[in-house]
Write a structure and sequence with these properties.
Radius of gyration: 15 Å
Shape: globular
Largest sheet: none
Length: 115
């Protein structure tokens, strides 16, 4: 949601800046992974068992879910198609199955969004 508001406030044309937005979404997902890993690592050197692919997939799914709520703005660009493609890659089939309940719980909260 916040990204949508920034894009609208800055007057960025989504259709002309799809690559920039794809890169920003990927970078955001990778930064989220790094931040979570750093936050949940223990002082004695242990790290949490957090898989980068899971965090990135969930990030892509979250962006797709939220941005698809505005089809008039994002539906005309290739951004939603790109995100949907990344989510549905065959290498992510196991992630989709494993993260099904997480996504289901998250979608309950997204249903209440009105932006």
């Amino acid at each position: 949601m916040k990204m949508h508001h920034y894009l609208m406030a800055w007057g960025i044309d989504v259709g002309k800046n799809t690559k920039l937005l794809r890169d920003a979404i990927g970078h955001t997902a990778r930064c989220a992974y790094s931040a979570m890993r750093q936050q949940y690592s223990s002082p004695n050197g242990r790290t949490c068992d957090l898989q980068k692919s899971s965090v990135i997939w969930l990030g892509m799914h979250a962006f797709y879910t939220v941005l698809s709520k505005k089809p008039a703005i994002y539906g005309t660009s290739t951004l939603l198609k790109y995100l949907q493609f990344q989510i549905s890659l065959s290498r992510n089939k196991q992630l989709r199955r494993r993260m099904r309940n997480v996504v289901k719980d998250g979608l309950l909260g997204v249903a209440a969004l009105n932006f």
